[in-house]
Write a structure and sequence with these properties.
By secondary structure, this protein is an all-beta fold. Helices cover 0% and strands 26% of the residues.
């Protein structure tokens, strides 16, 4: 960029959703970028194992409590999640890792993803 300015990852925090701003050049790693042309970009994998996230891609799984009754996390509607007893092949008890959006999604409501309120803060 011109005038001593550069694209800068705000706060130099490498977290999902962190703002990218224009800031004075400082040569930090948060101002260094790679340009990958679309015709040279590798496709996002849609199957296999993601070493970065520790999930099998698009492979359904259950989230099981470690409490004594080993209940399953179940979606009630598309927005509420509760513990319930396991019921074989219930899609609203199944989740999968979406490698494109890098989120955990409901196998029943595929257009919804898990979100941690306040990014896990209080």
């Amino acid at each position: 960029m011109q005038n001593g300015k550069a694209l800068d990852v705000s706060g130099a925090k490498d977290v999902e959703g962190q703002p990218v701003i224009v800031h004075g050049k400082n040569g930090g790693s948060n101002q260094r970028w790679n340009v990958i042309y679309v015709d040279k970009a590798k496709p996002v994998p849609t199957k296999g194992y993601s070493d970065d996230f520790g999930f099998h891609i698009n492979r359904p799984f259950y989230i099981v409590s470690r409490l004594p009754l080993k209940r399953i996390v179940q979606c009630h509607g598309a927005t509420h999640v509760r513990l319930n007893r396991y019921i074989k092949n219930r899609k609203d008890q199944q989740y999968y890792f979406d490698s494109v959006s890098k989120t955990i999604r409901s196998n029943n409501w595929k257009n919804y993803a898990m979100e941690i309120q306040s990014n896990g803060g209080h």
